């Protein structure tokens, strides 16, 4: 059940992303995707395995749901929010966009907890906020450096 929900949501978001006009170059999209992957996997496994805030369910379907979420959905959402932030000129609008992105990423994690894919051990909403903000802001600053250097 959980894999069908996550894959359906991901498919809808992916189709809308592919159809919408973009201001980002293909190299920027690939750069962001790889940076988010490189940030999210070690950080999430440190949090889940070493700090034991959350635990991935032992069911195989839940593991693949979690992997699908981390490999496709979260990088796609972050890239979409970066694309949206390009449409604004004011820094306050960009800040609001990135703040909304953090809360949507937190809602994704909360949905995984509610579906039973992730199990709460010592989880706190502030930990989730810190993790998502770190991933989003580091990838945003790396992307802006990449954009200034090459485009």
Number of strands: 2
Task: Report the sheet with the most strands, covering strand number, pairing sense and barrel closure.
Answer: 2 strands, antiparallel
The percentage helix is over 70%
Which stretches of 5+ consecutive residues score pLDDT under 50? none
Q: Which strand order spans the largest sheet, edge to edge or round the barrel?
A: 1-2
Strand content: under 5%
**Overall form:** globular
Briefly note the structural class of the backbone: mainly alpha
Average pLDDT across residues?
Answer: 92
The count of helical stretches stands at 5
- The secondary-structure element order is HHEHHEH
Gyration radius, rounded: 16 Å
Termini distance?
43 Å
